[in-house]
Amino acid sequence: MAQQQTVIVTGGASGIGLAVVEAILAEGWRAVVADLEQRNLDRCRDVLSPSNNRVRFERMNVADEDEVVRTVAACEAEFGPITGVVNSAGIGRDVPALDTSVDLFRRMLEVNLIGSFIVSREAAKLMQVRGSGSIVNIASVSGVIGNRGRVAYGASKGGVITMTKVMAVELASLGIRVNAIAPGPIETPLVQEVHTPEVRAAWMTTVPQRRYGTPDEIAGAAIFLLDQRKSSYITGQTICVDGGFSIAGILDPAPDMPVSEAPGAGHR
């Protein structure tokens, strides 16, 4: 019989994190839902009540090292061996580089990069005893290519991608795999609130599939990377789940987009 999987999901009470938790439970595995916001945890507890014997809820600030150390140790001791981690907790803001404060930049790094590192480090210390484990970091296409207004966010997610590679190399001999997922535009509740029609139109000119992704599509990639049977020889990789955004060049115009010419084009 395959080993029972127990996966910590940070930022697990909403958005992409919640979709990952639901996918974990659908596999018959167990999940630790770790989130900073108590109201999100309470709402998540109601949503997941049919599976409550396979779910543990933890209020945790990933940027607080002492809190992470205590929480991960308690989950291991009281809920079962931790076999996987999905680092989904993160923050983001679109601010032009020249308007970005050092405080904002530091905060992005503390949560998105350092927080993911602390959780990964503490889980890996426990995984190494068993000689197996899988860590999945949620990065972003903004860490792969330059997106306007995302100097702090993009730097933090680019750091996550490099951290993924380094930890994959260091932990491979311990039987621990480390990979990342770089989502493109994903239809989460937060995105629905903050993406204006203009922002959506801009994405539609650059995503070959001409749509936003869903949290379930990110969760599917996470399950694949967590599952030792399906991805045992994959480590150090970043999978872009972005509708082709990160590899696209010139696209055909969207159906409702007028075709424009540069000044002087066609008049040589």
UniProtKB/TrEMBL annotation:
Ketoreductase domain segment(s): 5-189
GO biological process, one term: fatty acid elongation
Annotated Pfam families: adh_short_C2
Domain of life: Bacteria
GO MF assignments: oxidoreductase activity, acting on the CH-OH group of donors, NAD or NADP as acceptor
Similarity comment: Belongs to the short-chain dehydrogenases/reductases (SDR) family.
Protein name (database record): SDR family oxidoreductase
Species: Microvirga tunisiensis
Lineage: Bacteria, Pseudomonadati, Pseudomonadota, Alphaproteobacteria, Hyphomicrobiales
